[in-house]
Write a structure and sequence with these properties.
By secondary structure, this protein is mainly α. Helix content is 72%, strand content 0%. This is GDT1 family protein.
Length: 372
């Protein structure tokens, strides 16, 4: 068992060094988080090699490999064109982004390995071996190993490369490998001079229009919508996390930390998760009344609440109560007023509601936030 696993691992690892999938992994790592790319690679390769190993030598009888490779080539070209698209309307429902990079990477690797040498290797090993599940683990780990090297390099250079250059590089990788695959597997009768010229003229026109639009947006000072929203939310949660950390009494005052049982401890946890994992929306409602409320420094709590209101005015208001900043606001309200303060998405009416509850605190917030 172990012998077949190791054999499969080393064969795939050596075969994929410097191959297109390693380069693709590198380009994905310049755009997405390392864990997203790795998880996407794992899913795509596991499904791809799983199909090969389950069907084994009968795959070619079900679907001709030439046809599979043609489909893979076409899809790679489509991926290359889509890589140059301008991201729009990414602000709304930003939490949905958590899944899209993984699916994108998984699809790319699943398609990229269709009819490729690693899939054929997996099929051959399965036909020869006695433990197909261990062969699957070995081939998948081999792909993760080579892809991991590419991801490591890509993650180190991603932040140093402009958005537009990342898009062009990513697009080029897919277009080059897709075009080469098509030239290798398409029947010769389709590779006429007229067809080749027509293909490159259409492809060049699409690339020219897409890059021209990207350059225009860059010159006009517009950022990638996805990156702009990501940077904004990251900044919000990072600043808010510092303010909430400052409220925490610490073990020297509390004794043993109660963690998520404490209202501030729980708030710290959700902000830390948001900052690290870019998970800005919580599932379901949270009953803050069940948490322990201690004798926190009210002035520090007010400062944190002012920071949230300032962010509402600076970055805009997200009315979804699942939003981590809104959850934090509710926790601070309970500490200060021992109740929720009605908030309908309007800062001025919110401050008025605070003044109704406590005129002194309301006046402080109004002066600091609205300069009244």
């Amino acid at each position: 068992m172990l012998k077949e696993l190791l054999r499969a691992f080393f064969l795939i690892f050596i075969a994929e060094m410097g191959d297109k999938t390693q380069i693709i992994a590198m380009t994905f790592a310049t755009q997405y988080k390392v864990k997203e790319v790795l998880f996407g690679v794992l899913i795509g390769v596991f499904l791809n090699h799983g199909i090969a190993i389950i069907l084994g030598k009968y795959l070619s009888k079900v679907v001709p490999l030439d046809l599979v490779q043609i489909m893979a080539g076409v899809l790679f070209v489509i991926f290359g064109i889509l890589a140059l698209r301008v991201e729009e309307e990414e602000e709304s429902g930003y939490s949905k982004r958590n899944f899209s990079p993984i699916i994108t990477v998984a699809l790319a690797f699943f398609i990229g390995e269709l009819g490729d040498k690693t899939q054929l290797t997996a099929m051959t090993l399965a036909a020869e071996g006695n433990y197909p599940i261990f062969i699957l683990f070995g081939t998948t780990l081999g792909m993760l190993g080579t892809s991991g090297l590419g991801i490591f390099v890509g993650s180190r250079i991603g932040e140093k490369i402009p958005d537009i250059l990342i898009k062009i590089i990513s697009s080029s990788v897919f277009l080059i490998f897709g075009t080469l695959k098509l030239f290798q597997v398409l029947p010769k009768e389709y590779l006429t001079d007229l067809n080749i010229i027509t293909y490159f003229v259409i492809l060049s026109a699409i690339i020219f229009i897409s890059i021209k639009k990207l350059i225009y947006l860059r010159k006009s000072g517009q950022k990638s919508a996805m990156r702009e929203v990501a940077a904004t939310l990251y900044t919000q949660t990072k600043e808010l996390k510092k303010a909430v950390d400052d409220i925490c009494l610490g073990e020297e005052t509390c004794g043993m930390c109660m963690g998520e049982k404490c209202i501030i401890g729980f708030t710290k946890e959700i902000l830390e998760k948001a900052k690290k994992e870019e998970c800005y929306y919580l599932d379901g409602d949270v009953d803050f009344n069940k948490f322990i409320n201690k004798s926190f420094n009210i002035d520090k709590v007010i400062e944190a609440l002012i920071l949230i209101i300032d962010d509402y005015l600076k970055y805009g208001i997200e009315t979804d109560e699942r939003f981590v900043v809104n959850k934090t606001r509710r926790a601070l309200e309970l500490i200060i007023f021992n109740k929720d303060i009605p908030f309908n998405g309007d800062v001025h009416s919110y401050i008025e509601n605070i003044e109704k509850e406590n005129k002194g605190i309301g006046d402080i917030i109004r002066k600091r936030v609205l300069n009244d």
